[in-house]
Specification:
By secondary structure, the chain is mostly beta strands. It has 2 helices and 43 strands. Strands 23, 24, 33, 35, 38, 41, 42 and 43 form an 8-stranded mixed β-sheet that branches. The structure holds 2-acetamido-2-deoxy-beta-D-glucopyranose (NAG) (5 copies).
Length: 520
């Protein structure tokens, strides 16, 4: 039923599997009754094009600034005057909001320059450092430090080059790398080591560039445990030593050669990485979706090809709800059913179809995992401006939550509850985590995971990391239905860059509510 995983040539003891998946209707028929959707807010005033969870359980959400008024005013009668704005020189509406999970409420924020199709990463102190965009925002760096009154701070010309549709990734030294963007076949770092630090050319982006549709935008970037970057653009991947600007390994083209990066929007997931005695033996990347060659041009001419795929999530999802050729007015055939991907199950039964949503989430929609295990889903705007009438898919301002099947009430007796925990994890040090479970615990089915909060836009989550910590199956009884498990913090900043992670105790594949810990 499913194509066999393709094992690519291994590098050292590691290897990648690139699994290419097929259309949803190729999935075995499933009752699709698991999971639960709820509408959190019918409108947050903006369409959620970018989302990032912060370590205080607030989500920074932003759209673009250059299309006219949004549906929410700036606070306290404030207005933004921007002579460069293409629609409104004086705009009293907000294009960014902060969502607080606990109170289910939003607060409007003022972003000063155009953040359209930009990128970002949380830095080790928990601030969001966000880069690039369009027009007056193309070289901006913006910092969001969270507090009850905080707002965006901007560093003009923080980047050397314009970055529109670039990908960011946090690095083991705490800086971030910003790769590519429209018309940019190069990368740079933020912050710079010195004022002299230059952007560097990257031949892989030249080689994967298709001038007709620019199919290598928003490349899929992951930090490998050996410190190199895995970079997928268009239809192939490399392992890249960014320190010496050298390709360490070149992977063959994906069979068929169809493009998978923006605007042929597919997605990619770094599968859970299991640490055993300080080593991650296998690193797997799942690349899904994309569009057949020519789909983008066809869509411009009114012919809508099916997406190459729509596919799965894994146990702690960064979602992949939709795919296919992206762009204004290009969306057709929305995928409403999320799919959970279980990488440890036998091929052929790894996908679990979940209950469908009733709201199509097209181009410019986003999703992030929050601490309690739900996935927030917002946005969808396949139009140049906000358009709520006489269009196939109106601009969507709502915010929904999807509760995957692991949150179903039938799982609650197995769900661990973390009792107390150390908040600081030092590399390689052992930590003991006490927890409680209502049912009898199956000692062999308890493990601890750490999930990095990623930056989501355009069907991709930047800075993905899900670590399964060393020390599974060491559960001990501590008292009346209380237990403790001893685990080892990640061995190095290559395996887990410093910063905030959500930690979960998992029992029988049912996760606890997460707790925030800081790796240092
Ligand atoms: C957004 O504002 C426009 C203009 O005021 C209005 O027509 C529209 O109904 C609003 N949409 C939503 C979903 O609130
Ligand atoms: C980088 O690429 C640009 C554009 O192709 C070229 O002009 C420049 O010389 C290159 N720089 C280096 C250091 O190779
Ligand atoms: C919305 O889209 C329709 C169809 O293209 C168009 O006729 C209408 O003018 C648009 N409305 C706005 C407010 O842009
Ligand atoms: C725990 O033990 C079981 C049974 O021996 C094994 O299948 C499983 O992989 C182990 N889990 C971990 C996290 O070590
Ligand atoms: C454990 O639970 C039982 C039954 O609820 C109770 O009688 C006993 O005192 C508890 N023991 C401890 C150490 O809390």
């Amino acid at each position: 039923m499913f194509p066999k995983p393709m094992t690519l040539p291994s590098s050292h003891t590691y290897h990648y599997l690139l699994l290419c998946l097929f259309l949803l209707h190729h999935l075995p028929p499933c009752p699709a009754t698991s999971g639960h959707w709820s509408l959190l807010l019918p409108t947050i005033g903006i369409s959620a094009m970018h989302m990032q969870l912060l370590p205080n359980d607030r989500v920074i959400i932003f759209d673009r600034t250059d299309f006219g008024p949004s549906n929410i005013s700036l606070p306290a009668g404030k207005c933004r005057s921007d002579p460069n704005d293409m629609a409104l020189k004086r705009d009293c509406t907000a294009h960014s909001v902060e969502y607080e999970v606990s109170s289910n409420s939003i607060r409007p924020l003022m972003v000063l320059t155009d953040v359209w199709c930009s990128s970002g990463a949380l830095i080790p102190d928990g601030s969001l450092v966000q880069t690039g965009g369009f027009n007056d925002g193309e070289r901006a760096v913006r910092v969001y430090k969270s507090c009850d009154q905080c707002d965006w701070q901007e560093i003009n010309s923080g980047l050397i080059l314009r970055r529109w549709y670039a990908t960011s990734h946090i690095l083991p030294d705490g800086r971030q790398i910003i790769i590519g963007g429209r018309g940019q076949f190069n990368f740079e770092f933020y912050p710079k080591r010195s004022p002299e630090e230059k952007a560097q050319n990257m031949s892989f982006l030249v080689q994967t560039y298709d001038p007709e549709i620019e199919n290598n935008l928003y490349p899929f970037v992951f930090l490998h445990t050996d410190g190199n970057l895995f970079i997928f653009a268009n239809n192939r991947a490399i392992l890249f030593d960014y320190i010496n600007n050298q390709v360490v390994k070149m992977y063959p083209e994906v069979p068929g050669g169809d493009p998978r990066n923006y605007p042929s929007t597919g997605s990619a997931v770094l599968l859970p990485m299991r640490i055993v005695q300080g080593v991650v033996a296998v690193v797997e990347v799942l690349v899904c979706g994309g569009a057949p060659k020519g789909a983008h041009i066809n869509a411009k001419n009114g012919k809508f090809d099916g997406a190459l795929d729509s596919c799965g999530e894994f146990k702690y999802p960064t979602r992949i709800l939709n795919g296919g050729t992206a762009g204004w007015e290009n969306g057709r055939g929305p995928v409403l059913k999320p799919v959970i991907y279980k990488p440890d199950d036998p091929t052929g039964s790894r996908f679990e179809v979940q209950k469908p949503s009733s709201i199509p989430r097209m181009y410019h929609s986003t999703a992030v995992l929050v601490r309690d295990g739900r996935v927030l889903i917002g946005g969808s705007n396949p139009h140049e401006r906000y358009n709520f009438t006489n269009v196939l898919y109106p601009t969507e301002l709502s915010l929904e939550a999807f509760s995957p099947s692991y949150l179903d009430p039938s799982s609650s007796v197995f769900r661990p509850k973390i009792l107390s925990f150390p908040t600081r994890f030092q590399y390689g040090k052992r930590v003991v985590i006490p927890f409680k479970v209502q049912s009898l615990v199956d000692m062999n089915l308890v493990y601890v995971t750490m999930v990095a909060p990623s930056f989501n836009t355009h069907s991709f989550s930047m800075n993905q990391r899900l670590l399964v910590l060393d020390g599974g199956n060491t559960t001990k009884i501590a008292g009346n239905s209380t237990y403790e498990i001893g685990v080892t913090a990640p061995p190095s900043s290559n395996v887990g860059p410093a910063g905030y992670y959500l930690l979960f105790v998992v029992h029988r594949d049912i996760p606890s509510e997460g707790v925030w810990i800081h790796v240092e």
